[in-house]
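Intended use. Records such as the Transcriptional regulator entry shown here are meant for training and evaluating sequence-to-structure methods. They are not intended to support clinical decisions.
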Amino acid sequence: MSASSPSLVRHEHSDSDAGTRQRVLQLVASSGPIAAPELAATLDLTPAAIRRHLGFLEQTEQIAVHDAVGGGPARRGRPARRYVATSHGQAALSHTYSELAADALRFLAATGGPQAVAGFAEHRVADLESRLAGSVPTEGSTEERVQALADALAADGYAASARPVPGGHAVQLCQGHCPVQDVAQEFPQLCEAEAKAFSRLLGVHVQRLATLASGGHVCTTSIPVIPSAPLNPAGNPAGNPAGPVLAPEGTNA
């Protein structure tokens, strides 16, 4: 049997590297800020391999070292570098159709006004809400239901995770990927409609702390760990007719 040609071996190795880098980028997007040892352990890579992939992704500006603000107490030794996905990394995870979508929404806003854009956003998120509804149980603890929502979003390509807040008073739903991130920078109604859908799915008040569209490294939604409130006829938790509370644009987690 003849040996494989060097060019074929190099091509297969390149394809394997590209696939592994994509997995690294997806994990950084969904779990960042995250350190190299955590990535290596999760993906079963050697320290040398994860350093090589992180170096490539950092050099191509798809990931960056996260500058923690107001972290915990100082520790001895050199702090671990923790990575988050950049806007370039987010773009690499999605298909580019943003400009066409933005043009269509600009036309809709010009001809139908802001209400038409909001109506489109609600119509668009209704499909997502319908897909997710079967995965989110109507009973169980808040933590279990948020985790189920995060799992369903992750399966839908949103690189989502659920993270308990210290103290146990809330759970944060984090989304490391958004298919309409670029368009939502101009039309935040898309983010608002999504947050309202989460509120309806979970049956509780939710608060958007940050979005990728406004500059956050993830979309972060805070869900309080309290007994669920009944929904009013508008589909929002009783006592909260306006739906979820949204942080001002530009606020980061």
